[in-house]
Amino acid sequence: MPDTEYFTWKHAVTNAYLDIPVFDDFAQGLDRSVYKPLPDDWWIGTSDIVGSTKAIADGRFKDVNIVGASVICAVSNALGHSDYPFIFGGDGANFACPPDKIDAVRQALAATATWAAETLDFDLRVALISIADIRATGRDVRVARYAVSQPVAYAMFNGKGLKWAEDRMKDGENAVEPAPPGTRPDLTGLSCRWSPITAEGTDKIVSIIVQPRSDLAKFEAVTTGLFKLLERGPRNSSPIPKDGPDFAFPPSGVRLEAEATAHIEGGYIKAWFKALYIALVAFILMKTGWKLGDFDPKRYRDYTGYNTDFKKFGDGLWMTVNCSKELADDIDGYLQDAEQRGDIYFGTHRQQSAIMTCIVPSITNDAHFHFLDGGEGGYTAASVVYKDKLKNAQTD
To answer: pLDDT value at position 396?
Structure first.
C-alpha cells in the first residue's frame, strides 16, 4: 500500500518539501509526527571529505567547512533556489532533491568534487541514490521543517535512510565521479566573512553528536533531558552572541571566497581583490551602522543570528553550544550514563571557538543561511569519538 501522505503530495504539489508545515520550537523535532515522507522518485545526495580528520589536525578547519557548505551552495544554484532539504555536517553535507533537475544536480556535485580537489587538494566524495532504493531496504527518509526565522526553515531528517545512504557512499557505492579537470561549480553566494565566535573565560564551545540505538523513545527521552541541561546556559546555551557575530577586517576567509569565484571573476587575483573590497565595505557598514541602499547592517546581523544552524536533527542530534566547564562536565556525565544504559551513542568535542560559513543569495534579503561548526575540530572530532565507540561495540 502506498503511503497516503506521499500519494497526496505526489499529485497535488510540485515541491513536496514546501508542503510540510513548519514549527518554531526546536524540541518539536522529537515529535515523530512532524516528519513527512518524501516521494519515492526524489533523490538523496551525500558528501564528505576523505581524510577530513587529518585536515582538521593540520588546522584546516575553515577549508573543511567551506567545502562542506560548497555542496549545498552548488546544488542550490543548480536548482535555482534554496527550497530543498539539506543538512550541513562540517566536512560534508547531505540533501534531498526532486527528480526534474537531477541531471543538473549531478553535474553540480561532479564539478564541486573537481573544484575541491584542484583548489584545496581535498578528495570530496559525492553520491546520489533514489529514495525508492533506500525504502527497498526497509529504511525511510522523512523530513521536518524547523523555522528559525520567517524566511528560513532548516530541514530535519529521520528514518535512518540518510545515514544509510552516507554509509553506502563511504563504501564506494552510488558515487558521482568528479567532472573533467578545470570544471567549476556555480558557488555564487558562498562566503565566510564573520570572525570566529570565541567562548569567554573558562567557557567552551562544545560540539555534540547523539545517535539513537534501536529504541527511539529512549533517544527522545535522553535528548529531552539534554535540552533541560542546556537551559542553564544563557539563551539555552546558544553560542551566537546576543547582538550577532563580530566582523573583523580583513576576514580570514577572503582566500577561500576568492578560490570559489576565481573562474567567474577572471582569475584568483581579481577574485581576491573583489572579495577584499566587498569585505572592507561590509566592515565599515557593520562598524558604523550606516545603511547602504536596501542593506541594513543591524538587520543583517540580527538575521545572521536567527538563521544559524547551531542545532539540528539528522538521524540523530547535532549541536554546537556554549557551555561553562561545569555544564560541559555535567553534559558528558549525563550522556555517559545514558550510553552505559544502552540508550544512545554519543561523541563530544570541546574547543575555544566556533566558525561560521554562509550562503548569502542577496544581502538585502533576509533568507541567508549560516552554518556553524566548532572552530578546532567541531563535528568531525566529535564524530571520531562517536564512531570509535560504535566500532568497539560491534567488535565486542
So the answer is: 58
Q: Note the helical H segments in the chain.
A: 4-12, 52-57, 61-79, 102-120, 131-135, 161-170, 216-230, 254-265, 268-288, 297-306, 325-340, 378-395
Task: For residue 206, tell me if it sits in a domain.
Answer: yes
| Cβ–Cβ < 8 Å for 283, 268 | no
Task: Round to whole Å and give the CA distance between 47 and 89.
Answer: 9
Q: For residue 186, what are the CA distances in angstroms to 80, 107, 109, 264? A: 11, 11, 10, 9
Residue 82 inside a domain? The answer is: yes
Residue type, 276: L
* Model pLDDT, residue 1: 30
Its pTM stands at: 0.92
Q: For residue 251, tell me if it sits in a domain.
A: no
pLDDT in tens, 161-204: 999 999 999 999 999 999 999 999 999 999 988 999 999 899 99
Exposed/middle/buried for residue 249 (C-beta within 10 Å: 0-12, 13-18, 19+): middle
Rounded distance between C-alpha atoms, residue 165 and residue 46, angstroms: 7
Place of cell 573583489: 274
pLDDT digits (tens, 9 = 90+) for 122-131: 999 999 999 9
Residues 6+ positions from 384 with CB-CB distance below 8 Å: 53, 347
Please state the domain count of the chain. 1
Q: For residue 8, is it within any domain?
A: no
Cα 123–62–26 angle (5° rounding)? 100
Strand pairing class (197-198; 353-359): antiparallel
pLDDT in tens, 324-336: 999 999 999 999 9
Task: Tell me if 329 sits within 8 A of 104, measured CB to CB.
Answer: no
With the C-alpha atoms ordered 167, 170, 173, 175, is the resulting torsion angle positive or negative? positive
Q: Is the pLDDT of residue 393 over 90?
A: no
pLDDT at 14: 64
Which range marks the domain in which residue 45 is found?
Answer: 18-245+298-395
Count of positions (residues) in the chain: 396
Give SS3 for 78. helix
Give pLDDT, residue 252.
82
* pLDDT above 60 for 11: no
